[in-house]
Amino acid sequence: MGKLDGKVAIITGASQGMGASHAKLFVDEGAKVVITDINEEKGNQVASELGDNVIFVKQDVSNEDDWRNVVNEAVDKFGQLDILVNNAGITFSKSIFDLTTDDYMKIFKINQLSVFYGMKYAAEKMKDHGGSIVNISSMNGLVAGALGYTDTKFAVRGMTKAAAIELANYGIRVNSVHPGVISTPMIHQSDNEDLIKEFAKAIPLKRVAEPEEVSKMVLFLASDDSSYSTGSEFVIDGGMTAQ
């Protein structure tokens, strides 16, 4: 038996990287999964690779109507909704002097506003039977990083706690995951392999993580194994924030 047998999940930003890794592990553990992303071509490819228990829905996570549609698609296709993984996120490597208002608002809408929408509409479908919401924050939701990214990831941490308290009466658990440096397309956006190798020397475990390592943490929180955990931070950063 799988840890997610009989469960239905939505995972955002799942056309590549950590989101695609989460989706694969969820399917392996028996879940039916709705994956979403703005990238339709890659999203459909991942869904095709993962089989009949996965559907792809194109979604702009910053759009409220898209959220209503995704949640309704999950229930219409699979009959219920038990798990939400708010995984989609972006960052800009810009200083405070170069970060524009448009840049800042884009980060806010994708990293923070989308989490509010996701929790709001997923919880509506879960409140009769309970469920688990997993919000992917960052180690920069605990310590400083890039302006804009850090702000929103700290906010996700606070939103998680507030929602956990409000939704506990419905049997809905809400937790945040705080990854460090993970080997995903986000950190391979440019020719920075040498920089990543150098940065890895500062990590106590002396390496960056693979997406699958984060997926195992997300699986734990999505499953009944974490039945008494809510409103908490789960850090997976190789020891970075322990220093």
Low-confidence stretches: none
| Average pLDDT over all residues | 95
CATH fold node name: Rossmann fold
Q: In what range is the share of β-strand residues? A: 15-25%
The CATH architecture: 3-Layer(aba) Sandwich
| CATH homologous superfamily label | NAD(P)-binding Rossmann-like Domain
N-to-C SSE string, H for helix and E for strand:
EHEHEHEHEHEHHE
Number of helices: 7
Supply Rg. 17 Å
Structural class: alpha/beta
Broad shape: globular
For the termini, the CA-CA separation is: 39 Å
Describe the strand arrangement of the main beta sheet, using strand numbers. Answer: 3-2-1-4-5-6-7
**How many β-strands, per DSSP?**
7
How many structural domains can be distinguished in the coordinates? 1
| Major sheet description | 7 strands, parallel
Name the CATH class.
Answer: Alpha Beta
How is this structure best described in words?
With 243 residues, the chain is an alpha/beta fold. The protein has helices spanning 17-28, 40-50, 64-78, 101-126, 149-167, 193-200, 211-222, and strands spanning 8-11, 32-37, 54-58, 83-86, 131-136, 172-179, 233-236. It has one domain: Rossmann fold (3-Layer(aba) Sandwich), CATH 3.40.50.720. Strands 3-2-1-4-5-6-7 form a seven-stranded parallel sheet, with helices on both faces. Helix 4 runs parallel beside helix 5. The radius of gyration is 17 Å and the shape is globular. The termini are far apart.
Short description:
The protein is an alpha/beta fold.
SSE blueprint:
Elements: E1 8-11, H1 17-28, E2 32-37, H2 40-50, E3 54-58, H3 64-78, E4 83-86, H4 101-126, E5 131-136, H5 149-167, E6 172-179, H6 193-200, H7 211-222, E7 233-236
Parallel strand pairs: 1-2, 1-4, 2-3, 4-5, 5-6, 6-7
Helix pairs in contact: 1-7, 3-4, 4-5
